[in-house]
């Protein structure tokens, strides 16, 4: 794809500032577009993205496995699980585990590396049980260590 637009996570419009949906539409209209979705939470995804994509010239969805478990998928969707790698359109994509739900992405585009963490974060806090905090920290630091390689 020439003149590529990349969209990372399109949340429910109630979460976005008022002008964001229009700005995104203006940026993707008539463009070749890759839509990445890290997971199915409404602050990262709305199924309206499937209709929005019809405003583009060409589009491909790169979606976390949990999105595909909840919604029917378009034929051009690539479903990613932690550890998966895919190459398309001279772009390589690697999926990492999340400390919450879904995946994080590393996108390799020419000499540019773009890391989108999704919900990969150290979510540990005193309100959570110790075993949950331990698991969250383990996943977070394990996945971050992979970026050093």
Walk me through the structure.
There is one protein chain. The chain has 149 residues and is α/β, with parallel strands linked by helices. It contains 4 helices and 8 strands. The protein has helices at 20-28, 48-52, 65-70, 130-147, and strands spanning 4-8, 32-37, 58-64, 77-80, 85-88, 91-97, 103-109, 112-116. A hairpin with a 2-residue loop joins strand 5 and strand 6 (91-97).
Low-confidence stretches: none
Largest sheet: 4 strands, parallel
Continuous helix count? 4
CATH homology superfamily: Ribonuclease Z/Hydroxyacylglutathione hydrolase-like
Summarize the helix and strand pattern as letters.
Answer: EHEHEHEEEEEH
What do the pLDDT scores average to? Answer: 93
Q: Please bin the fraction of helical residues.
A: 25-40%
The first-level CATH class is given as Alpha Beta
Percentage of residues in DSSP E strands: 25-35%
Query: How are the strands of the biggest sheet laid out side by side?
Result: 1-2-3-4
List the helices and strands and how they pair.
Layout: E1 4-8, H1 20-28, E2 32-37, H2 48-52, E3 58-64, H3 65-70, E4 77-80, E5 85-88, E6 91-97, E7 103-109, E8 112-116, H4 130-147
Task: Describe the structure concisely for a colleague.
The protein has helices at residues 20-28, 48-52, 65-70, 130-147; strands at residues 4-8, 32-37, 58-64, 77-80, 85-88, 91-97, 103-109, 112-116.
Core attributes:
alpha/beta, 4-stranded antiparallel sheet, Metallo-beta-lactamase, Chain A, 149 residues, 4-stranded parallel sheet, 30% strand
């Amino acid at each position: 794809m020439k003149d590529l637009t990349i969209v990372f996570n399109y949340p429910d419009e109630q979460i976005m500032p008022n002008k964001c949906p229009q700005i995104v539409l203006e940026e993707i209209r008539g463009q070749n577009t890759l839509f990445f979705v890290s997971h199915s939470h409404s602050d990262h995804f709305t199924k309206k993205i499937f209709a929005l994509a019809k405003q583009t010239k060409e589009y491909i969805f790169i979606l976390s496995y949990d999105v595909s478990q909840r919604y029917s998928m378009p034929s051009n969707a690539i479903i990613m699980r932690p550890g998966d790698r895919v190459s398309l359109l001279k772009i390589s994509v690697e999926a990492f585990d999340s400390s919450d739900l879904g995946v994080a992405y590393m996108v390799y585009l020419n000499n540019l590396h773009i890391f989108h963490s999704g919900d990969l974060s150290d979510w540990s806090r005193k309100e959570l049980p110790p075993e949950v905090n331990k698991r969250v920290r383990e996943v977070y630091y394990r996945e971050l260590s992979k970026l050093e390689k």
